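thought: user wants a sequence for this fold. calling inverse folding tool.
action: design(structure=
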């Protein structure tokens, strides 16, 4: 990404700006309970979108339409978050009142390949004016892939009410809805220090190895050329490549965009079932791991399987091919080649 280096230089300054917000907030354990991925039930103060299309999904409360969002822009309990592939796009115009969350400088640890810790997430939420009771609506460019990624990261911290704008930035703009370049200023909020809980929805390399041995279901959401090993990285992202091409043994190829319509919105529940269940014979009883190259495209597929089709056991392997394809002796499958090396 051409402008990534510029934004990385601002990371330290941004963190110092939020350092003053680090006051002693109550530390809490990861929420427990029956909801979705083991989180506690939340008494949502903001009405769900009752659009007919959304009603057919397993969890229609996780999506909102452009009209619903337009009607709730002035709702004090709603914060709109824009998270884009193009990290400069927000400044050219955004939904009124939206705050920017940069997928790289805001959500990632600045040194290790990992996400914010509990204190860092608390600081970020406080700086963005988000409380634990806030309804957060995510949207972004490129079919919402980074918006889905941001929502997934928020889910690691069990934020109770997260929703995705169906169709994202492109659909909002195509409908001629209001955009602004005015800076969004929200008062600092108080957000508790909540420990991150990776286990329910995040997979690590060791988890994937065990999954392969158990012949568990894996979904490779990259392009067919990446899946076959013809490409080692996406054309615009050579820095996110790997030494070896191919796919994790046993993984099905289901490119992530197959779940979306041309306008960026999700396909209907019936179309998603036809894609994943009819074509790939997945079942809601399966333990599924999705992956791409760094976890952003697979976040979109995770959202479709977990929230829209209601699969209870779906994990995103965010290490994805940039980790797997660079590991020594990680088993790889390629068309016309046996799996190498064979796992014992």
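)
observation: tool returned 344 residues.
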């Amino acid at each position: 990404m051409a402008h990534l280096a510029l934004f990385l230089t601002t990371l330290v300054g941004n963190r110092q700006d939020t350092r003053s917000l680090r006051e002693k907030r109550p530390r809490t354990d990861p929420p427990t309970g029956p909801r979705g991925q083991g989180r506690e039930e939340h008494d949502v103060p903001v009405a769900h979108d009752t659009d007919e299309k959304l009603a057919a999904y397993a969890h229609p409360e996780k999506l909102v339409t452009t009209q619903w969002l337009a009607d709730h822009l002035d709702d004090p309990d709603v914060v709109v978050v824009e998270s884009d592939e193009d990290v400069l796009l927000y400044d050219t115009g955004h939904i009124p009142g939206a705050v920017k969350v940069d997928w790289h400088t805001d959500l990632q640890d600045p040194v290790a390949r990992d996400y914010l810790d509990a204190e860092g997430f608390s600081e970020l939420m406080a700086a963005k004016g988000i409380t634990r009771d806030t309804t957060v609506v995510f949207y972004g460019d490129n079919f919402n892939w980074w918006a889905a990624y941001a929502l997934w990261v928020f889910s690691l911290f069990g934020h109770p009410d997260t929703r995705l704008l169906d169709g994202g930035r492109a659909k909002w703009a195509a409908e001629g809805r209001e955009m602004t370049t005015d800076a969004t200023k929200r008062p600092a909020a108080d957000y508790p220090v909540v420990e991150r809980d990776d286990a329910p929805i995040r997979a690590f390399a060791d988890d994937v190895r065990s999954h392969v041995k158990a012949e568990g279901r894996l979904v490779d959401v990259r392009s067919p050329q990446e899946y076959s090993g013809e490409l080692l990285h996406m054309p615009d992202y050579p820095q996110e490549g790997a030494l070896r091409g191919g796919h994790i043994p046993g993984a099905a190829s289901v490119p992530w965009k197959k779940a979306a319509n041309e306008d960026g919105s999700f396909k209907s529940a019936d179309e998603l079932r036809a894609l994943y269940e009819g074509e790939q014979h997945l079942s809601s009883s399966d333990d599924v791991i999705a992956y791409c190259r760094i976890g952003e495209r697979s976040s979109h597929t995770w959202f479709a399987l977990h929230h829209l089709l209601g699969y209870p056991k779906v994990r995103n392997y965010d290490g994805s091919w940039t980790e797997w394809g660079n590991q020594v002796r990680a088993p790889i499958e390629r068309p016309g080649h046996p799996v190498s090396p064979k796992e014992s």
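thought: summarizing for user.
answer: Here is the designed sequence. The longest strand covers residues 78-82.
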